[in-house]
Amino acid sequence: MSIRLHNVAKTFGKPGRQTRALEPVNLDIHDGELVGLLGPSGSGKTTLLRIIAGLESADREPAGRILFGDRDVTQVHVRDRRIGFVFQHYALFRHMTVFDNVAFGLTVLPRKSRPSSGEIRARVLRLLEMVQLEAFASRYPAQLSGGQQQRVSLARALALRPDVLLLDEPFGALDAKVRQELRRWLRHLHDELNFTSVFVTHDQEEALELSDRVVVMSNGRIEQIDAPDTLYRAPANRFVFEFLGDVNHLEGEVRNGVLTCGDARLAVELPDGPEELLLRPHEVRLTEAPNAEAHLPVTVTAISPVGAEVRVELEADWLAKPWLATVRHADFERLELARGQRLFAVPRRWHRFPENRDAATHRTSEAIS
Amino acid sequence: MSTLASLAGSAPKRVLPGFGLSLGISLTFVSLVLLLPLTGLFGQLAGVSLAEYWAIVTDGRVVASYLVTIGAAAVAALANAVFGLLLAWVLVRYDFPGKRLLDALMDLPFALPTAVAGITLATLYSSNGWMGGLLAPLGLEVAYTWVGIALAMAFTSIPFVVRTVQPVLEDMPHEVDEAAMTLGARDGVAFRRVILPHLWPALVTGTGLAFVRSLGEFGAIIFIAGNTPYETEITALMIFVRLQEYDYAGASAIASVVLAVSLLLLLAINVWQGRFVRRLHGGNG
């Protein structure tokens, strides 16, 4: 079931002391899509999710509309929206067993649409099997680990076969490993059952890994909606670029096609004037000698081998903040990197986001590789 | 059970310091303030034979007072359970002007000398008082009937329910009722199946405390009760009467019955609640 939002806004507080949590937004989520709402805290992502769920009502002015498929649910109460909602802190009913928790939605159905108790039993057990907790049916939530509790809450949300599944930072309270596992598992579940789901997260990695499309938000506005790879390669603006990963800044003055900053020089095809270029850590290459286009002397100040790559911290007089570069282990050994070593940085690629929001430039230096 | 084992000294050295000292002081205090007077009470009974004891505690007038006291206390406790829950709910879940004031008012029955409350209630509800004057044409008599007794009991014991339910309700995350709503539960169903079970232990404890408190209440009731033998005499009054007659043994005998009932009730609530709470905390509460 598709979800469409038109002009949905949210203001909190009494008149006179209001804060806009959500500027008027438009959003189209396709049938069967898994969409992540990504943003820092206070960006309005949870508010947006709760408005979709009906746990929060959108402002009357401007009059927004929320459609599930062709059904206008703007005025529909949360209990009649046919949604499944998963809370960050599980919100399980602690006085009920796992079985009763999952069965709750079915047992509170009006008598005429309620399945027989045998059918409820079969359905709940099937759900518990799906979340791999069939052995825990008679336990109480307090006897389960965080990851297990969140799986119970997922099963509970899916028991009524909702049109859409909404998840509010579903893995936020779990540790890294369980998170990774649950993420993959949710992706499988989504592909298998093919419901439409929207989840909120402040973790870029989670959003990029899990979503079909990511909605990046800040200050109550949607900054960009795109597939993860597009988002990463062609961020629409500086906020998106900076939010999606580590960033190195290079500020300087361009004159005659050369950007200068202290004793650093970089050939760029840009008009004269002050410029700020941004680079990802993996877009910085380290060499022993400068080349014709780039002369960026740096000193290695810290080295930490993390997984598949080595993270190197670089400092220089011309840098306001240290740079971060990631190099492959092979390069690390070839260059015999050590702390205090003087090297030259060569950008493989750089990005530029002038004040004019539409003029983002992403330039790859083909000559050097 | 585990506490008993560690008391026996078999447990390894504890990390938290001060166990011996703090337990020692607590026990001394409990002994001085609670156990010593109680021992005195039973000491008074030493001169009474079993047959005499039985005769005192089953005296017709005294038995009638048990029924009046327990009946009125039960009504008061149940009324307090309902209205105390409502008050706690209003205080926790809603924001309104004067909320702080209402919250502070909740403790007034504790702060007010009970005799003051009793006199106030008696003047208010007597046939020429404000409320009494209003109710008299309707044929309702409050002062000098058991309704008055229940009213005085409810007045003095309502904070027990409010103050036990309130913190539990405050700790209960909103997400839990939101979850019930997203699962399609109507408000009534969500309250009955999700919120009430959460509050149940606190509500039962609060109601139980209110009930036990009402059993022993004297000052507030005595002015409004009318104290007609066999009809509106409470057990505390029977004790008082015995004391005025310098019949200490008789007073102690009746007091021991009240004490036993209260103690048994409190114990039962504690055991039951422990079982319930254990379930919520995964078997190690």
From TrEMBL, chain A:
Domain of life: Bacteria
Keyword Cell membrane assigned: yes
Keywords assigned by UniProt, alphabetized: ATP-binding, Cell membrane, Membrane, Nucleotide-binding, Sulfate transport, Translocase, Transport
PROSITE patterns in the cross-refs: ABC_TRANSPORTER_1 (PS00211), ABC_TRANSPORTER_2 (PS50893)
UniProt entry tagged with the keyword Nucleotide-binding: yes
Residue stretches making up the ABC transporter domain: 3-244
Protein name: Sulfate transport system ATP-binding protein
From TrEMBL, chain B:
Ranges that cross the membrane: 21-43, 63-92, 104-123, 143-162, 246-269
Keyword S-adenosyl-L-methionine appears in the UniProt entry: no
Self-association state and partner proteins as the record states: The complex is composed of two ATP-binding proteins (CysA), two transmembrane proteins (CysT and CysW) and a solute-binding protein (CysP).
Location of the protein in the cell: Cell membrane
Membrane topology: Multi-pass membrane protein
Identification of the protein by name: Sulfate transport system permease protein CysT
Keyword match Membrane: yes
Function: Part of the ABC transporter complex (TC 3.A.1.6.1) involved in sulfate/thiosulfate import. Part of the ABC transporter complex CysAWTP (TC 3.A.1.6.1) involved in sulfate/thiosulfate import. Probably responsible for the translocation of the substrate across the membrane.
Sequence ranges assigned to domain ABC transmembrane type-1 in this UniProt record: 66-269
GO CC aspect terms: plasma membrane
Species of origin: Billgrantia gudaonensis
Key words, A-Z: Membrane, Sulfate transport, Transmembrane, Transmembrane helix, Transport
Pfam families: BPD_transp_1 (PF00528)
Family (UniProt): Belongs to the binding-protein-dependent transport system permease family. CysTW subfamily.
Main localization, broad class: membrane
UniProt-recorded Gene Ontology molecular function terms: ABC-type sulfate transporter activity
